[in-house]
Amino acid sequence: CSNNAKLSTLITYVPQALADGARLLHNAPVDRIQPDVTGFEIRIGTTAAITVRAARIVCAAGAIQTPILLEKSGLQGESNHGGKNLSLQPQVPVLARFRDPIGSFYGIPQIAYVDEFETATEADGYGGFRLESASPGPGAGAALLPGIGIDHLRALSEFDHYAACMVLVPDGPSGSVGPGSGSRAAIRYSL
After folding, report:
1. pLDDT tens digits, residue range 143-175?
2. Helices in the chain by DSSP H: which ranges?
3. What is the DSSP string of 92-107?
């Protein structure tokens, strides 16, 4: 968000953690957590590895990498739910061009949604779809614009004439994720 109104972790939790004495390591992928020494091993580049010890560890590697890291570290827990119940909320963007400039990317990025087409019921499960407004700036929105080369540049020069929305299909926890070959994840997911 261009004016930080979404209050991402970049301007909320991270600065507070740093102020409280936390250290932030970037470009340092974690290979495994070693619970016996309350630490974790990280790679620096492709060859060097160091072990970091900490009183507390926050594992926040996202829906794909967190379960893989926990499994590789032997930390799935007794529930055995690690890597199961993956939900991805499939979505597709829809773009419209208006005759007059509308500047949809000014202001709040997502302000409205329409859920009258969602048909989720307790008996039948998930169904239908939801429309959500989306107002990407020119940088992110350029990927949605039609054309190649000069035609794409022409569309981008008229970016303030475009508006977008997302069509979201509600999904249930139907997928799973685990280690794949090499450093890749093995993701299984069906709608």
Report:
1. 989 999 999 999 999 999 998 899 988 887 889
2. 13-19, 62-72, 138-141, 150-157
3. EEEEEE-SS---TTSS
